[in-house]
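Narrative summary of target 7.
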Amino acid sequence: MHRYPPIIIIIATLLLSRPLVETRPPDRPQLQQRYRLCSKSRFTDSQREIEALSLKAGKLADAGKTTPMSTLARQLSRNSCTLSLPAPSEKPIGSAKIYTQRKPGTLLVGHLWKCDDCANWHFGPATGFVLAKGIAVTNYHVVDQQDKSTMVVASSKGDVYPVTEVLAANRKDDVAVLRFTGGDDLPPIPLAREVRIGTTIHVLSHPQGRLYLLTKGIVAGYYKENATRMLVTADYAQGSSGGPVLDGRGNIAGIVSATNSIYAEAEGGDGRDLQMVEKLCIPVSRIRALIKAPEKTR
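Modeled conformation, tokenized:
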């Protein structure tokens, strides 16, 4: 009998005991990350920042400066609003400048609630962006959390502002336009006019609480089932919902919405192999569909 060196046996055991591909098909996730940051939590730097935001947001809630979630949920039926928007940028910029120029206008957007393990307020952040002064955009599914207490947005500098109103929303398109109080110095991010297949894009979001992560890809295609979706190749994950998808000029090409995992039957019929993960985003046209331009004065 041939005897293998001990190191070979150890490596083989590790490889055989750990699947390379998750064969269980997960539910199609909506990408809002929820946190339970209690005294027993282990912190990363980003988690410490989120904990600090939770404390600031909790003070707003305790002072009665936030809007109840029940009120915001009723306003989700509004289907349009009137806003003046900045003109899209025409100058191409590189990845580094996209990050530095668009980070200040990218927000953490989420709910406040109290858990069963402690008496503290907790902040469950997704992503959004500043559309105009005091106006933010995120996903419908981020807002539609009626079991929570209230909503806030937070800036890259760590300032927290209460969400006071839903101006317009569309469940099918998974878009919501919100008003928040404060943050008058936050720079809005312009909407792109048109984004073609093959266009280089960047996603700036907070996947799994990794704050302000920038990824790069292209617009891979568009398709329509119940609603129009834009497929991109840039990575994102839970916590990225509502995150800006930016074209090469730093304009909004769309927003992150969800993922869809595509599986094939494994040989032998004993499972399914993951082949591809579709990254499904809301095209900029569906954001524009909620917004009317102000009437011109004579």
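Residues 6-30, 32-43 have pLDDT under 50 and may be disordered.
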